[in-house]
């Protein structure tokens, strides 16, 4: 007995939906997420107090992409889910030197928070506070020194850190902006008078380019 073509088509559509779901799950597996902070708030109503939860989540792919998001809901899992989805929609890409640290020192601020991020040699590890550490771990940074002054609010610390990361530039980006060659920006370690170290030169030029905008 021949099968109904409509039934066969429905089966193909079902497999297609399953394939899309698997692709979505694979994309989600690429990201690492960390719960930075969760806050319980209460609203006083006629019948008593009504509780809700606010979550702050950081998401990254471990290769230089990172984002953060916030979510509010009556239950903790739903608040975390909302925050994670928002973080994935607002991800930024940060250039990394050798895939492990920043190209140069950078400063950032948000509200009362002031952060300073410094590139570090191999083996230094992540020296930073809790919220800042979560950003670096999900982003894939292995060596960095971070300091935050003025606030201990995790929301302001994370936003100040992202403000700093958005001002991070690679030598190639600085060279393209200034119309020069990459070698002119970073300098050769040998044979160039006053060339200095490549990392220091890149940091100075990147800071100058950022300040000139």
TrEMBL record:
Cellular component, GO annotation: cytoplasm; small ribosomal subunit
PROSITE patterns found in the cross-reference section: RIBOSOMAL_S5, S5_DSRBD
Entry keyword set: Ribonucleoprotein, Ribosomal protein, RNA-binding, rRNA-binding
UniProt domain comment: The N-terminal domain interacts with the head of the 30S subunit; the C-terminal domain interacts with the body and contacts protein S4. The interaction surface between S4 and S5 is involved in control of translational fidelity.
One term of GO molecular function: rRNA binding
Low complexity bias spans: 199-213
Superkingdom as given in the UniProt entry: Bacteria
Species name: Roseospira marina
Lineage of the organism: Bacteria, Pseudomonadati, Pseudomonadota, Alphaproteobacteria, Rhodospirillales
Boundaries of every S5 DRBM domain copy: 31-94
Name listed for the protein in its UniProt record: Small ribosomal subunit protein uS5
Pfam families: Ribosomal_S5, Ribosomal_S5_C
One Gene Ontology term from the biological process aspect of the record: translation
Family (UniProt): Belongs to the universal ribosomal protein uS5 family.
Quaternary structure and partners: Part of the 30S ribosomal subunit. Contacts proteins S4 and S8.
